[in-house]
Amino acid sequence: MKFGILFRPQDPPSAEGIVQRWQEILAAARVAEESGFDGLFVPEHHMMPDGYLPSPWAALGALAAITERVDIGTTVHLLPFEHPVHVAEHGAMVDILSNGRLRLGVGLGNFPSEFELFGLDAKHQVSRFEEGIEIVQRAWAGEELDFHGKHFDVKGRITPPPVSPELWIGAMSEPGVRRAARFGCPWPTDPLHNREVMRYWAEHYRAAGDEYGTSDRLAVNLLRDGWVGDSLEEVERTWWPHIRADHWFYFKQVPRWVADREPFLKGVTQEEDFTFDRHRRDRLIVGSPDDCIASIRAFQEAIDPAYLIMSFRVAAGPGHQEELECIRRFGREVIPEFRTAYR
């Protein structure tokens, strides 16, 4: 299993310190590579007042320039908002700059206001998304394209070609994981749902791979929020208040929680109802190194991920130095337990 970090490039409430925030992310990226992580990833959203990354391409180029061996990628790039030829070309250049290290996760998008920003109708997002996936895959394969779809007409070939990129397809539903399997792509999960939901979707994903004959190309890439410290009590005190606010935002904004497989949601009506002891179980990777190792092994038993991509610092904190120490400690005391055969 490989280990990655998903950075959260935000500076609430109004992005006044976003330049400094990005310098901290680049510093954390160097520390992560030195500490034994295998991949570095960034997200995408639009019109967020805290400076949430609206375009990953410059960030991926910067990460390519300051690292030597780690994967670099997105979880996820919102493919419906960009012409797929541009995505294929931008991705090819990042892959060239990094010598074959691009892992481009793409997703549908969640927020109606983002579709309005680009003058798009969200009702057509699935067909637009699927056409985009096909065009990027074929362009990266070096095809001379003559594509005529509902949304795009493409004729020609991209140049220069990429080295060896991977396209990942994000999903938060049964149709979504089946789509990822149909296109033969690794699936980056969401970081929100519990282990039971992940197991349920992973089973559908792999079954669809058998159905479509793509099983040999599939992989579950698990996203999780977490923090390593001396104890669960310390993590609850220093880290949990930040992540609770972050998860509450998504609980309110994203109507995709699988409620019947999320018993912790019963009775939750406000942020304070997200209690650490209930929310961390089967969901977060937190606590002492031994606590984190035990949680990771439980996810291995349930879904056998190829990649574990962690988010440590979120929009509101903790601070930069605390993040660097967490990265170093996770690399020193957690990752080595998974570098030999699973025991």
What's the short story on this structure?
By secondary structure, the protein is α/β, with parallel strands linked by helices. Strands 1, 2, 3, 4, 7, 8, 9, 10 and 11 form a nine-stranded parallel beta sheet that branches. It is built from twelve helices and eleven strands.
Describe this structure in words.
There is one protein chain. The protein has about 350 residues and is of the alpha/beta class. About 45% of the residues lie in helices and about 15% in strands. It contains twelve helices and eleven strands. The strands form two sheets. Strands 1, 2, 3, 4, 7, 8, 9, 10 and 11 form a nine-stranded parallel sheet that branches. The chain has a two-stranded antiparallel ribbon with strand order 5-6. Helix 7 packs parallel to helix 11. The relative contact order is 0.14. The model has no long low-confidence stretch (mean pLDDT about 95).
Give descriptors for this structure.
single chain; 343 residues; alpha/beta; 9-stranded parallel sheet; two-stranded antiparallel sheet; 12 helices; 11 strands
Count of strand segments: 11
Structural class: alpha/beta
Could you say which overall geometry the principal axes of the C-alpha atoms support? globular
Tally of DSSP helical segments: 12
Share of helical residues: 40-55%
**C-alpha Rg (nearest Å):** 19 Å
Q: How much strand? A: 15-25%
Poorly predicted spans: none
Q: Please summarize the sheet with the most strands.
A: 9 strands, parallel
Q: Give the H and E element order.
A: EHEHEHEHHEEEHEHEHHHEHEH
Termini separation: 13 Å
Overall average pLDDT: 93
